[in-house]
Amino acid sequence: MEIKELQQLKTKFVTREVGNELILVPLSQNVAQMSELFTMNETARFIWENSAETNSIDDMVPLMTDNFNIDQETAKKDIALFLDKLESLFAKKVS
């Protein structure tokens, strides 16, 4: 999955902030499925919230390295891991 695909996927979820955590709630026919919640860690939340500002993983890397104390390689791996996990979760939901 690429960052631009994340924008389309975002329409299939609502988010709720609970304390310091961001919770994803999948939608099914415009109804929140409260039995299937996904909690995001700080890195995932950052990617989710900043994806509209980028078009690719390479565009997101500088945002990550500026915000977190990580190198470019680690940022790229973290972004790809988050996108793969989100894609996998969504694929299971659709199946």
Give a verbal description of the structure.
- There is one protein chain.
- 54% of the residues lie in helices and 20% in strands.
- It has 95 residues and is α+β, with helices and mostly antiparallel strands.
- It has one domain (3-94).
- Strands 1, 2, 3 and 4 form a four-stranded antiparallel sheet that branches.
- The longest helix has 23 residues, at 72-94.
- It is globular.
The main sheet comes to: 4 strands, antiparallel
Measured by DSSP, the beta-strand proportion falls in: 15-25%
Distance between the termini: 17 Å
Number of strands: 4
Structural class of the secondary elements?
Answer: alpha+beta
Write down the Rg: 13 Å
Quick one: overall form? globular
**Percent range of helical residues:** 40-55%
Q: Which oligomeric form is depicted? A: single chain
Number of domains: 1
**Element-by-element helix/strand order:** HEEEEHHH
Map the helices and strands:
Layout: H1 3-10, E1 13-18, E2 21-28, E3 31-32, E4 38-40, H2 42-50, H3 57-67, H4 72-94
Antiparallel strand pairs: 1-2, 2-3, 2-4
What is shown here, in short?
The protein is globular and about 35 Å long. With 95 residues, the protein is α+β, with helices and mostly antiparallel strands. It has helices at 3-10, 42-50, 57-67, 72-94; strands spanning 13-18, 21-28, 31-32, 38-40.
